[in-house]
Amino acid sequence: MSQDLARLTTAREQSDLDGLAEAAHRMKGSWLLVGLEEGAQLSQQLAEQAKQHQDTSETWRLLISLTNRLLKNWILMAHTHTHSGQDSNRTRLAAAFGVTTLFMVAEVIGGWLSGSLALLADAGHMLTDAAALLMALLAVQFARRKPNAHHTFGLLRLTTLAAFVNALALLAITALIVWEALHRFADPQPVTGGLMLGIAIAGLLANTLSFWLLHHGSGEKNLNVRAAALHVMGDLLGSVGAIVAAVIIMLTGWTPIDPILSLLVSLLVLRSAWALLRESLQELLEGAPRSLDVTRLIRDLTLNIAEVRNVHHVHLWQVGEKPLLALHVQVIPPYDHDALLHRIHDYLQQHYQIAHATVQMEYKPCAGAECELGINSGSAAVHHHHDHSHAPGEHRAH
Prior knowledge:
Helix content is 68%, strand content 8%. The chain has helices at residues 2-13, 17-34, 37-51, 57-114, 117-143, 157-186, 193-215, 223-252, 257-284, 294-304, 337-352, 370-373, and strands spanning 308-319, 322-331, 356-362, 395-397. The longest helix is centred in the first third of the chain and has 58 residues, at 57-114. By secondary structure, the protein is an alpha+beta fold. It has three domains: 2-55, no CATH class; 84-284, Alpha-lytic protease prodomain-like, CATH 1.20.1510.10; 294-397, Cation efflux protein, cytoplasmic domain (Alpha-Beta Plaits, 2-Layer Sandwich).
């Protein structure tokens, strides 16, 4: 559909009636594929008018209006899918929180009855996981609140903030585990291998269930869910290490294996926590999403849309899981301003999955050193909609 519309718009702007007729005929097929007879009829009518050199203005207006309505419906469907994803995240977090809390209570009771300090310490670790899961769950719940005059994006970034706090907590917990492991090298403690093995196996089952609940179906897109999953993964790896250590202790009595495996698990958790910290901090500092190449985006717009001469004042950032873009484009004065704007938006949506873009179209070259690179390096990451000095004929569009 987007390619057909681009060919149609180009032909009309160039007054190429033969090309317009051919593009309209192709677009008819696209309308039939999506099952909209009205669009197919308008495309057929436009093709016939172009072949007979008749006035196409009214048919063109109706066709563009219908196309815009279709695209808005698609965006609405995508928005609904986003809410469905939030519901899924909330369900997984709630289930994992329940499993973790129940097992934490079981460890406290087991540690109190057996007099095992190790089990009580592990219960404390589980408490931090339960707190992290609860924080993530509350963040998802608050993020569902609708935007208002004070929070125009809603509270979507709260999930990223929760991921950042969770990453810091993971680093702190890892540091404590490393410190305790080093302390045990200097002052070995007696370990009851049988009891340790039983609790470790139960912990492995509980943590495996929690990790599956968080990881299954998440697509690794939501930072908040990933942060919670990393907490549980740390416990899961710890359970595996505890099982190995318990078996070795039961067979050989060699207790230093316990702190050795703790250090190895800590290194794995540290690597994941550091990556999560960098990614969440990148978003909180309004950096461009790592999955999108700003330089390539500028080049592609210039090369693939003939009317675009220059792209500058580009600001790309992210709120929650949504990439947002604001940019200025110097264009050749178009025959149809709205059609060109639609083509730019459609290109960003199709090739970069950017559904929310603010595009300011200008007809005069950009003045300033920053325009040579296409990026205003001296501006903040977010493009605020303040007043600019515009030459006559310049347009600002959303």
